[in-house]
């Protein structure tokens, strides 16, 4: 096991009818900016619940934060924060709204030339503007971590940021929000959380027995609840386990003391930047090819995953590892998620070369051993056509 | 799954040669009281490591905190805190030293008549004197939670306390400390952590699929590493998994959203108060009888535990549940832990009646349904003779 530091100060408020508790968590004298996305919260009643809870609080609103939160939109929100002397941010939405809010938390206190530096110069935020979240879409885990990913349409870039000052002060997780989420988004959420765990787990054995089992616990639970979540989102038991699994998949715990890969995300981000494909679906496109291409380096963990998550008992380590990749791809298909780039776009020719070119420009070496070069990424993306 | 709040702000610093990092965590202008136990830290080198790290810090010392931290001793330490204007507490030790430090953190800021009230009147501490810990004995989980248990020899009482202000600010966990721990204490630590998980898990099914699997993950890991921990404490892989499992067993995570039992602890505490039996051993004495006595109420979870932790595949739910209890008792025996009260004292006659009398005086109803009455405790303790 590697040495590690672990600290996660976010307060989770989990359960039925908890949205009204938002009022108890925000200082009474705060000037709040309520941030949300495309407006679905106005149709499903969550907006009304939040507004009712905050009836006595000074609240300004900023809606319209898109999926893959866009820099230009966020700069408009930053202007509101400055103009209105906002002191507290409240994200009501999924990972995109929360990630956008984290960028704003950092940008609101950043005193450099341009907030874009936070992304390109990898500036870590030690203390941002305080914020909380009301989660409306389980998937990214952003509600209990300190990272974010921001997109800039202008340059077709999608970049990561973070820092210890970017944990939400609180996050409210009411599994009942799932009842109003379209099936497509639920499938995305399941795929996203599942791949988050894989990125932290599917590396090489390092003797972190407990972390391995925790990771497998989340994967097993997602596999167990997925059919019910898709078929009947009103099933509270499935919804609550789905929601808590998504949070635990990326709140830092299972990555402590172990190597991390994240190459699937890095390649996937480029597919979103280039084609606008849903984030989760890009992961499902890349993952099978990534595991096949890096089979020798990952086969021990692939086999362990096959045994423990998919109950594969027959065959050699290689057999179990191959079967585990097949099971993973089949799982994505069962969720209704296509796993080939050509399923999403006809213009895929040249994508692999473009991704490799971008990685080369940025000097990126990826994977748990930093051994995955741009030319490897090119081959993996091509395998995923 | 039940609704829950979860927040755990303790910073964990985990790994090889991390004790020197204690300096980075304590404010430079702090007046520190370093608290420790019977002096083993002076023999195993941990004291020297801490003192070297804190060479430039104003440190006063208070040693001699006994196992089952004793109120009278702690009141002497409280006098030092007041006399020396101490501003920061540093516990270097196991659960007893850390629990004692939590009492002092609360008592230092308490302005009621007598600090004993904190225990008898169940006064929760919202903000105590800040403190950190250097853990020398994995077992209780006190290094990452906000609870403590204090003993008063005078009245033969052992009482619990806690509050959100009693999380350590940081805890340093260097698994190498295990190399100098006597086998008896290692066996106690394994038993203590194992039983902590059981108390939060062995209740009734409530559909918290992920919490169940996390609990089972800790149990499986403790079972896997226990033989190596006892045979070769220098094995770092076993030591690190043991240490992290003990912390995760009682840092709040696995109890969220599920019912808790804790009756084994409540009965066990009385055996320590009456006979001075090691805390962990009292749990091993009570657990098998408790599960046999409450078999009907707990058999579904007992069977699940049998299947998943002990790989019991044959038989009915009842068969698996019985076999799981037998496996648990056999595990304690393999650790060298006796499981009958008569193995520890010849004066056991009348113990059951005394425990029942105490519970009756306090008006206690125990267990996950608060349905375990003093007369039930009497029968369970008698079964454990």
Structure description:
- The structure is a homodimer of 385-residue chains.
- With 385 residues, chain A is of the alpha/beta class.
- The first copy, chain A, has two domains: 11-176, Rossmann fold, CATH 3.40.50; 182-383, Dehydroquinate synthase-like, alpha domain (Up-down Bundle), CATH 1.20.1090.10.
- Chain A contains 15 helices and eight strands.
- The first copy, chain A, has helices spanning 22-25, 40-43, 46-53, 71-83, 95-107, 116-120, 183-201, 209-231, 236-249, 263-275, 279-293, 295-310, 317-334, 351-362, 374-383, and strands spanning 4-14, 31-35, 58-62, 88-93, 131-135, 147-152, 157-162, 170-173.
- In chain A, the strands form two sheets. Chain A has a six-stranded parallel sheet, with helices on both faces.
- In chain A, helix 7 (183-201) packs antiparallel against helix 8, helix 8 packs across helix 12 and helix 11 (279-293) crosses helix 12 (295-310).
- The longest helix of chain A has 23 residues, at 209-231.
- Chain A starts with a strand and ends with a helix.
- At the A-B interface, strand 1, helix 8 and helix 9 of A face strand 1, helix 8 and helix 9 of B.
């Amino acid at each position: 096991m590697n040495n590690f530091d672990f600290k996660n100060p976010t307060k989770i408020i989990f359960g039925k009818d908890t949205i009204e508790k938002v009022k108890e968590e925000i200082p009474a004298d705060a000037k709040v900016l309520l941030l949300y996305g495309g407006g679905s919260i106005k149709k499903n009643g969550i907006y009304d619940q939040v507004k009712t809870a905050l009836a006595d609080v000074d609240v300004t609103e900023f809606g319209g934060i898109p999926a893959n939160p866009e820099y230009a939109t966020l700069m408009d929100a930053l202007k509101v924060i400055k103009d209105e002397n906002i002191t507290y941010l409240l994200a009501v939405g999924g990972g995109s709204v929360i990630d956008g809010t984290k960028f704003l938390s950092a940008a609101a206190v950043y005193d450099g030339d341009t907030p874009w530096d936070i992304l390109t110069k990898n500036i870590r935020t030690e203390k941002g503007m305080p914020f909380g979240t009301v989660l409306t879409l389980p998937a990214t885990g952003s509600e209990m971590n300190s990272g974010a990913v921001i997109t800039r349409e202008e340059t077709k870039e999608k970049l990561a940021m973070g820092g210890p000052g970017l944990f939400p002060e609180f996050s409210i997780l009411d599994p009942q929000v799932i009842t109003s989420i379209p099936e497509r988004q639920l499938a995305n959420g399941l795929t996203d959380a599942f791949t988050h765990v894989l990125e932290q787990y599917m590396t090489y054995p390092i003797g972190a027995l407990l972390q391995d089992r925790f990771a497998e616990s989340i994967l097993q639970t997602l596999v167990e609840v997925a059919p019910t979540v898709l078929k009947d989102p009103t099933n509270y038991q499935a919804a609550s386990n789905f929601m808590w699994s998504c949070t635990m998949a990326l709140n830092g715990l299972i990555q402590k003391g172990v190597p991390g890969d994240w190459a699937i995300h890095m390649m996937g981000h480029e597919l979103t930047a280039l084609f606008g494909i849903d984030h989760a679906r890009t992961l499902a496109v890349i993952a099978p090819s990534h595991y096949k291409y890096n089979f020798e380096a990952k086969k021990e963990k692939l086999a362990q995953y096959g045994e423990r998550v998919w109950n594969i008992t027959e065959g050699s380590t290689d057999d179990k590892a191959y079967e585990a990749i097949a099971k993973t791809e089949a799982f994505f298909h069962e969720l209704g998620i296509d796993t080939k780039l050509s399923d999403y776009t006809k213009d895929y020719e040249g994508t692999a070369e473009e991704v490799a070119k971008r990685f080369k420009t940025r000097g990126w070496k990826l994977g748990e051993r930093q051994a995955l070069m741009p030319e490897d990424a090119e081959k993996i993306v091509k395998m995923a056509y």
